[in-house]
Amino acid sequence: MRRPLRFAFLLLTLAGMACAPPGAVPSTSPAGPFLRIIGTNDFHGALEPRADSVGVQLGGGAHVAAAIRAAAAECAPRCEVLLLDGGDMFQGTPASNTAYGKPVVELFNELGYAAAALGNHEFDWGIDTLRARMRDARYNILGANVRYADGRDVEWIPNDTIVARGRARIGIIGLSTQQTPTTTRPQNVAHLRFVDPAPVVDAHARSLRARGATHVVVVGHVGGWCAATCDGEVFDLARALTEPVDAIVSGHSHTLIDATVKGIPVVQARSRGQSIEVVDLPLDGSGPARGEVRPVLTARITPDPAAAAIVARWTARVAGEFSRPVATLAERLSRAGAQHSLGNLIADAQRAAAGTDVAVMNSGGIRADLDSGVVTYGELFEVQPFDNTLVRVTMRGSDLRGYLAQIVARGRPNAHVSGASIAYSRDSAGAGRIDTVRVAGAPIDDSASYTVAINDFMAAGGDGLGPPAAASVEALPIIDRNALRDYVMRLPQPVEAPRTLRIWLAGQAAP
Q: What is the pTM of this model?
């Protein structure tokens, strides 16, 4: 298995390089005619460029469009081009969310995408809105492993498609992550099931080839990661396949993947337009497919005019409301690690807004970093874009202990807390268990009553953090990001987020 390229290494290598001019075919391109698959994933409505942790500007719809067009032009006329997206296209920014994803569909239509995977966040605004965006799209949004609860195929979700590229007929199979029921609003998909994708891909690969496909490509909102080895949902899929598949364009985990499994290139280009994937697939069987991930460095790319016009029109609609400054931060707040200051700050804000003993914020709901200096309401929107509302849960101390144990049950915290401190350990299988827990500095009284602030996504079972059955649940008319806005506005400026370690592994230094 080929080890992935590190993104930091790519930046260092490519920061001084301009994009290859049209017609300049990389020396590693196949000798004969080939299909160039260009992919994106997890765009999340990121129409404008944004800085990474070291201040490098990446992405933005107009720059991603220019990078895609350059990658398509550089191999012409020897290549055919297929443009795919790994899902989670719409959710995440004011310009996209306030229009329920319409700007992204318009951008993708302009670029000529052939197909996209159905991401978990495509369900965030409900089935009716999703179906409306699918009607708007001039590309297929595919989810072959999505079923009704009784096992029937979902008639309005296409499973696969065949597109012609020169003399090649490319069969495309789309997949959704099996994690969808706990990574979108659970009630939106309660009537659906997300089944094991490997048998589904095998069945559709056979069907596509019987229907005349010369090649088969999977575009899947199924994630993974590579370190010493490559693991995760997309790699489990690739290893389980028995039918020939030529390439897998993945998404969901926001990771950089450039690997090969059983001869199949597997790629993922992080998220929010930070990179694009390029896979060159020989059409004459002259050699193996080759994949790479290219960073979209805005300083080195001239924005695409047509895409820039789309971005300007939609971002102008929300500029006034979301450009208002709300606070000043003393330092950058990033989401690095299982526990971070940004998560602590959000949990503190929610405990204050709900007036509770404890607050729990699911880490998966924290969607962007915050730079130091002046922070706008639009930037807070990107941190918490889901319009979740707060919920006050009342439970007995014994139930609170069990609830907090869910945070570390997988061996690594998946939430941040306020008002509580937790020390945990792992068993031989890697599962986590609480060693000690304190609320307001004191051990939990199992017979006492405690109040806990969570969001409505969690209250419905999202991220596996639903409240105990015996708990009392009270919905509050408070949007989570507004709780954060109001909280940071009240703090002394510039705001210094709490660095205290509130959940720690036994053996680490206790706070």
A: 0.91
What is the full DSSP assignment across 344-396? Answer: HHHHHHHHHHHT-SEEEEEGGG----B-SEEEEHHHHHHHS-S--EEEEEEEE
Residues contacting 312, CB < 8 A, separation 6+: none
Q: Are 275 and 71 in contact (CB under 8 A)?
A: no
Region of 248 (left: φ > 0; alpha: ψ -120 to 50; beta: rest) is beta
User: Which amino acid, one-letter code, is at 382?
Assistant: E
35-316: CATH architecture: 4-Layer Sandwich (3.60)
d(CA 244, CA 206): 9
- Residue with more model confidence, 29 or 334: 334
Q: What is the domain partition of the chain in residue ranges? A: 35-316, 324-505
Whether 115 contacts 84, CB under 8 Å = yes
What b-and-e string marks burial along 307-317, b requiring 16 or more CB atoms within 10 Å of the CB?
A: bbebbeebbee
Question: Would you give the distance in Å from CA 257 to the centre of its chain?
Answer: 14
Degrees, nearest 5: CA angle 48-132-111: 45
pLDDT on residue 3: 39
Which segment of 13-27, 227-241, 256-270, 360-374 scores lowest on mean pLDDT?
A: 13-27
Pairing verdict, β 146-148 and 140-142? unpaired
Query: To which residue do tokens 């309660």 refer?
Result: 190
- Tell me the average pLDDT across 92-121: 98
**Residue 302 main-chain phi, psi, to 5 deg:** -80, 125
Rounded Cα distance, 295 and 275, in Å: 4
Selection from 126, 119, 131 nearest residue 89 by Cα: 119
Nearest to 187 by CA among 456, 393, 465: 456
Q: With 70 as the cut, is the pLDDT of residue 15 above it?
A: no
Residue 36 has pLDDT above 90, yes or no: yes
- Which of 22-36, 175-189, 207-221, 317-331 is predicted least confidently? 22-36
**Are the C-beta atoms of 350 and 480 separated by less than 8 Å?**
yes
CATH topology for 324-505 is 5'-nucleotidase;  domain 2 (3.90.780)
Q: Is 152 helix (H, G, I), strand (E, B) or coil?
A: coil
User: Are 115 and 141 in contact, with CB atoms under 8 Å apart?
Assistant: yes
